[in-house]
Design goal:
- By secondary structure, the chain is an alpha/beta fold.
- It contains 22 helices and 23 strands.
- Strands 1, 2, 3, 4, 5 and 6 form a 6-stranded parallel β-sheet that branches. A 6-stranded antiparallel β-sheet has the order 12-9-18-7-8-13, covered by helices on one side. It has a 5-stranded parallel β-sheet with strand order 21-20-19-22-23, sandwiched between helices.
- Strand 19, helix 16 and strand 20 form a beta-alpha-beta unit.
- The radius of gyration is 26 Å and the shape is globular.
- The relative contact order is 0.09.
């Protein structure tokens, strides 16, 4: 059975019209055989819901859209964008696109191949296609929902007709996504003459209500933090910690490769500085809540928003910030802003800075932070493990800390007014695209320097618990072996047990010439390509800005060197791996 619940496999060699007819035919047979429901209507149209995702949110929403389509008597199937060929697209009649944006306006990992084909000169005309696009993004970035905008524009250029206007969702996506879903499905139902059924009561009109777990962004589970221990050496330049959350009676079930979202609380010391600067007591009413609580749990007071930056430049044209912005160089602005927080910018603006009422609209909602899970439910069914680097920097006169990383390290378990709270709000962020192969014989290559090792610890525990015979190769590194080799004892034991077949290490500062994981990949070029030819799955986790790009460049170089057919052939080889879900990344 396909993931969408259809009896027709997603890769079946049928056109959209043939599949729609078959879906109705099969549904008719099934209905005739059910004594309790002989009136079930066959879907009158098949809706293709496609997604581009980096963390799994777009995939989840796409599934909820299909559930809503079925509740309205429409057929529906969910497919990753990279699984859609131009030929298959040309056969579709109704297309709903749900996509996030990755990096600096790029397509997410499972949509890049589709986009390359769609924007090519030979892309097919799509006059018979009706479509709608939902974008997921963060207005804090310059290229907000850029992937959705590009797809929407290109589909129109190829002759497709919009069912409704594109909707671009900010981080609080639930309500606009629900409204878009309701609008587009109502239009489709009216166009096709579909009628609601009782077979699928779950609808996509409220994605939060439709989630399988009661614990989500708006209702996180209060989980006890039962382990908080330092992994890196006390004299390391980094502070990497291991955490374990007790799942208690939550009913949360997870998979190796998923992420856990942690709902942070701002540092009370920073909140106090804020109140002092604003000349506020903290008791001021903000939509029925005291200001101090709004600043602690409701607003982002560490990272300044784009809107605040623009407002401060207008208010204080002689400030240092305004001088940097006046040069019009985005990298210079990013460099100047790095390490500075909202309070720094307010002080820089001096007397021109906005007061409390003017400032609050520029403070974005405080968001949960997602961390790759570093455990397997087969080994630890009642706990979720995280591997997190604490962000700390600054001089003696002012110290800074990452909102969530220092909350985890320092503040969970502190006594707060009226409560002794040793718990944190958490919820699961499933990521089906980044998971251990179902084939226990398949070899896997894992590339994860620093805290990028997190999911691969879970992968290794998973394969050990399953008794998987497939070979496992890990590339890991950091600055110094003596201080930064996290989980060294565990990895040594896994090697001795035969679970970890190969371990290649790269500690960049232990010698004059810096060595990184991509260096080790190139050194092991022949063996690495041999694993690929043997059907290995390649996983990458960690920093997106440099590491992931350098690793991909190294992988392409390895393929080109070993095949001897040039860069274009290597790029196609890697594209085939990505299309086969054998090259996947969890990068941030």
């Amino acid at each position: 059975m396909s993931p969408t619940g259809s009896l027709i496999p997603a890769d079946a060699p049928f056109s959209a019209e043939q599949e729609s007819w078959l879906a109705g035919f099969i549904a008719g047979i099934a209905a005739a055989g059910r004594r309790e429901d002989t009136t079930a209507a066959a879907p009158v149209a098949t809706i293709d819901v496609v997604f581009g995702t980096q963390t799994g949110t777009a995939e989840f929403l796409a599934g909820e859209v299909v559930a809503g389509a079925r509740s309205r008597g429409l057929g529906g199937r969910v497919t990753a964008l990279d699984d859609i060929t131009p030929e298959r697209l040309a056969e579709m009649s109704h297309l709903l696109v749900v996509t996030s944006t990755y990096g600096e306006g790029e397509m997410p990992d499972n949509a890049g191949l589709f986009w390359e084909a769609l924007r090519a000169e030979g892309a097919p005309r799509l006059e018979g296609l009706r479509y709608a696009v939902l974008g997921l993004g963060d207005r804090g970035y310059d290229d907000f929902c850029e992937a959705a905008k590009l797809l929407d524009t290109r589909l129109e250029q190829l002759g497709a007709t919009r069912l409704c206007g594109r909707v671009d969702c900010d981080v609080d996506f639930e309500d606009p996504a629900a409204q878009w879903t309701t609008t587009v499905l109502d239009v489709l139902a009216a166009e096709t003459g579909a009628t609601a059924t009782s077979a699928a009561p779950t609808t996509a009109a409220d994605p939060v209500a439709a989630t399988r777990s009661p614990w989500h962004k708006r209702n996180p589970y209060r989980s006890r933090l039962v382990v908080n221990r330092l992994l890196s050496s006390p004299d390391s330049a980094k502070e990497i910690r291991h955490y374990e959350f007790d799942l208690g009676d939550s009913g949360i079930t997870y998979a190796a490769g998923d992420a856990l979202a942690v709902v942070p609380v701002n540092d009370d010391a920073l909140v106090g500085e804020f109140l002092t600067h604003l000349g506020a007591s903290g008791e001021e009413d903000v939509d029925g809540r005291p200001l101090v609580e709004v600043l602690r749990t409701g607003r982002e007071i560490r990272t300044p928003s784009k809107e605040l930056v623009a407002d401060l430049v207008e208010r204080a044209p002689s400030s240092e910030l305004a001088s940097v912005v006046a040069h019009g160089d985005r990298p210079d602005l990013d460099s100047w802003l790095w390490g500075r927080d909202v309070l720094d910018l307010l002080r820089d603006a001096g007397s021109a800075a906005p007061g409390l009422d003017e400032l609050l609209p520029f403070l974005r909602p405080l968001q949960a932070r997602q961390y790759s899970i570093s455990s397997s439910p087969l080994a630890h069914p009642d706990r979720i493990h995280l591997t997190v680097a604490s962000v700390r920097y600054g001089a003696q006169d002012r110290r800074y800390g990452g909102v969530a990383s220092t909350y985890l390290a320092d503040r969970i378990g502190e006594t707060t007014p009226g409560t002794a709270d040793a718990t944190a709000g958490v919820y699961l962020q499933a990521n089906a695209s980044f998971s251990v192969p179902t084939d226990d014989d398949a070899p896997i290559v894992m590339i994860g320097p620093g805290t990028g090792i997190a999911p691969f610890r879970g992968f290794l525990h998973e394969r050990a618990a399953r008794g998987a015979s497939g070979r496992n190769w890990l590339f890991f590194g950091d600055q110094h072996r003596r201080t930064d080799f996290v989980y060294e004892d565990e990895l040594t034991e896994l090697r001795e047990q035969g679970v970890l077949t190969r371990l290649d290490l790269a500690f960049s500062r232990d010698q004059a010439e810096k060595i990184y994981v991509q260096t080790r990949m190139r050194e092991q070029s022949r063996a690495l390509y041999g694993w690929l030819e043997d059907g290995a799955y390649v996983y990458v986790c960690g920093d997106a800005s440099r590491m992931a790009k350098d690793v991909e460049a190294a992988l392409l170089a390895v393929i080109a060197e070993q095949r001897g057919r040039g860069d274009e052939d290597a790029a196609q080889y890697l594209a085939d791996l990505r299309r086969a879900k054998r090259y996947v990344r969890d990068v941030y």
